[in-house]
TrEMBL record:
Residues 113-260 form the EngC GTPase domain. Its EC number is 3.6.1.-. Keywords: Cytoplasm, GTP-binding, Hydrolase, Metal-binding, Nucleotide-binding, Ribosome biogenesis, RNA-binding, rRNA-binding, Zinc. This is Small ribosomal subunit biogenesis GTPase RsgA. It comes from Nostoc cf. commune SO-36.
Length: 379
């Protein structure tokens, strides 16, 4: 099923903003609101995959069920999905999801479709900016393949000079952070503009000011959310309750429960691509071996004098350890084979191709199981 199939007159499009039991809360597109208020049967802009700007007269929010046909074909509906709604009951606020449009991206944890970017929030002080922790979060964010936006909050606590030092250092990592202060209202508008008409997931350690930033960004949404669920309740969300909050300027924002040390569980040979400064090196030169892990291999284009190389080595160990563990859980025999095969090549020898295939298979399977579990629980 392709997007073109929906380019017909009269389809009602919306975005799933929350899943509750076997109901889906669907924020209808702006055009739907306008069309409804005009009472006209006009052609809708069906090319628009992104959420639209709410105006004073916000488009309706419908509580929808999923058509039996979707259940039969095993089509799951995720938060973030663009959907076609049929049989709207505007007065009762109800509808039925008839189709799910093709997804542009699919995040695993939190399970959200069509996310455009990750907004990583850290503080420059209180809690102090810890490079290793920041690096870990950045790697995790980069591993989603989505755009990564870095906001450094509490800039009111440091001097211009200190800010410049942090800025220079992070530029060496390949990032241009936005320095903000929610407390003093510095650059929060600018940060907000990056979220326009996009689906953004916000992440970062505890105490850096995520709640404060969210509250600043979504004053109006907070009120509306208040009517539905009682309160914004950030931090209490589990992966089982994911919600997208509408930004006044358009766009949707999802909050993730705080976690302090995200696991490095990526495929070892892909890890290097999550470092922008290493990506830059690999764009202009190649390692001698295509399966180079950039440790002690000869003629490596990556190894060298860059600040986060130490982080890379440490995360690589973590990624390999994670994969070995996965391997053992899934298939103890093949791990044995792998081990004996590696003998004689040196104890740190590692077989990337075999492992990564295996990993991908397991990963997709667990992903599916997670989802199935989620829906079983909810139905
Ligand atoms: N100095 C200063 N303090 C801030 C700023 N923004 C937030 N804070 C304070 O930092 C503390 C933590 O803010 P929160 O918004 O709760 O942080 P959080 O990231 O949501 O924390 P968790 O809910 O634990 O994930 C609060 O006491 C805020 O008042 C800022 O720009 N400057
Ligand atoms: Zn290399």
């Amino acid at each position: 099923m392709t997007g073109e199939n929906f380019a017909v007159t009269g389809q009602l499009l919306g975005t799933v903003v929350a899943v509750q039991a076997n109901f889906y809360r669907v924020q209808m597109d702006q055009e739907v609101g306008e069309q409804r208020s005009r009472g006209a049967e006009e052609k809708l802009d069906l090319n628009a995959f992104l959420p639209h700007c709410p105006t004073a007269a916000s488009p309706p929010l419908l509580l929808c069920t999923r058509r039996t046909r979707l259940k039969k074909i095993g089509q799951q509906v995720m938060v973030g999905d663009r959907v076609v709604v049929e049989e709207p009951d505007w007065a009762g606020g109800r509808g039925a999801i008839a189709y799910v449009l093709p997804r542009q991206s699919e995040l695993d944890r939190p399970a959200i479709a069509n996310v455009n970017q990750i907004l990583l929030v850290f503080a420059v002080a209180d809690p102090p900016l810890e490079p290793y922790q920041l690096s870990r979060f950045l790697i995790k964010a980069e591993s989603t393949g989505l755009d990564v936006l870095l906001c450094l909050n509490k800039s009111d606590l440091i001097s211009q000079q200190e800010q410049q030092q942090v800025s220079d250092r992070l530029l060496g990592w390949g990032y241009e952070p936005i320095f903000i202060s929610v407390k003093d209202g510095i650059n929060t508008d600018q940060a907000g503009r990056y979220l326009n008409n996009k689906i953004t997931v916000i992440a970062g350690p505890s105490g850096v000011g995520k709640s404060s930033l969210i509250n600043t960004l979504i004053e109006s949404a907070k009120l509306r959310v208040g009517e539905v669920s009682g309160k914004l309740a950030r931090g209490r969300h589990t992966t089982r309750h994911i919600e997208l909050f509408e930004l006044p300027s358009g766009g949707l924002l999802a909050d993730t429960p705080g976690f302090n040390q995200p696991d490095i569980d990526c495929i070892p040979e892909e890890l290097i691509h999550y470092f922008p400064e290493a990506r830059k090196r690999l764009a202009v030169a190649s390692c001698r071996f295509s399966d180079c892990l950039h440790r002690d291999e000869p003629e490596c284009a990556v190894r060298g004098d860059w600040e986060r190389y130490e982080h890379y080595l440490e995360f690589l160990d973590a990624a390999i350890a994670h994969q070995t563990q996965l391997h053992q859980q899934a298939d103890p025999e093949s791990t044995m084979k792998l081990k004996s095969k590696s003998k004689g090549k040196g104890q740190s020898q590692y077989e990337p191709k075999l492992e990564s295939k295996k990993y991908r298979r397991i990963s997709r399977k667990t992903q599916l199981q997670d989802l199935q579990e989620l829906y079983r629980d909810e139905e």
